[in-house]
Design brief:
alpha/beta; transmembrane helix; Pectate Lyase C-like; 10-stranded parallel sheet; transmembrane; membrane; 11-stranded parallel sheet
Length: 488
Amino acid sequence: MDEETPTAAERGLAKAVASGEWFDAAGEPVRGEVIRRMLLGRFPWPDGAGPDPRGIRLRGAELAGGLDLGEVETRLPLRLVDCRTTEPVVLSGARLSTVDLSGLAGRNVVAVETRFDRALLLVGARLSCASADGTVDLAAAHVGSVLDLSGAHLVNTGPDGPAFHGNNLTTAGGVFLNRGFRAEGGGPLGTVRLSGAELGGQLNLGGAWLVNLHGPTLVADYLVTRSNLMLDNGFHAEGRGDNGTLRFVGARIGGRLTALDGHAFAAEPGSLALNLSQAHVGGDVLLPVAFTPGLVQLDGFGYDGVPRGARLGEWLHLLAHRTSHYTSQPYFQLAAAHRGAGNERDVRRIHLARQRDLLRRGDLAPGARLWHRLTGLTVGFGYRPAVALLWWLGALLLSVLLVVGVAGPAGLTLHGGQPGSCALVEQVGLALNTATPLVKPDVQQRCQLATAGAGGLVVAASWLLQALAWAFVTLFVAGFTGLVRKSG
């Protein structure tokens, strides 16, 4: 067949394009080179009519020889729906209008640094390859509207190739990898890559299924979105890697982060599953603790408003037992959110949990650890100063028991310095005088403890109780004024 001579299917397509209609090829081959010539204006149009502004509308064709539109510039929309090919679709460096490859079955689509003035659609595409470039490669591409791969199935069996490569991608609208979207493979650099991408709308992964046996499933470091990040509606991610199955390091999410009814798993138990280090969410955070059984990294993670999807106790357990190491920032962030909502009781609860975690996992010198443990027991690290009063009351009670229950019956109390038993009221006054640092109910000291023999032991015990009483009162005052609170 002459390369310049159109086949019957290609002549039918040309007629449909000239009239602005769809052409159904019914499985017949249409050469990709013919489509390229049509977009470049080099095709011999019937009757010299030329293409309609609606562009190329082709359904159900076999793209013979693949499709190479590299460096092509055209304003004509290109819609190749439910087509198939055994060769790559190459769009790199081109400037195109709307491109609709929905239902495409084949190898891969390479569109590095391509500019799509309007939308790019790969809805329901079925692509499988072993390419280091990626099954869908949109690195540094620009999409003027939405990028929609909902329901697509992308597989890369290469050792280092991603299923979706969108590093430094920019879009004016949202990116939809949802409604049954599946991506498999990717190797150590990730199945779906969106590092440095800037999206003018949401990133929707609701219901997506991401699997990588040799690395992370989603790497979106320094991703920026103007709207929501959605990991909900049955979202599933399973991968391995020291930096997390899902990575959003330094990401900026303009809307909400929702992970309701989603799950992320690390291949090895106890490995990092979700990495939100230094990320920020401008809207609500709906992150159930059940989203992942693995570790999470929340150091530097910021958000506006109180997190939802989990109770406060679940969040505190997550911070204390599901993070790789102690860090104070996630606690302060959570406390600030609850303080902004007016939940002061919850704020104290959060800081108490923070101090306990610091004591358990923090890097404290032995002396600091001892002091921290002491203030925790006595004043709740400065957030529960009333506990010190309970300890003081305990010291007061012990003092009364010592004098009334031990010294009195043993005849170790002196009345006016002379041998003889003190009255019960005088014994109680002596005990209060010992354990009450600021109030002296028995100024005249009419009842005293004997110092000879066993009385010396009772006197020494009373001194110890007096020291403890002073310490507990001092800790109460310090805790009440915030002097023993640590910044962590």
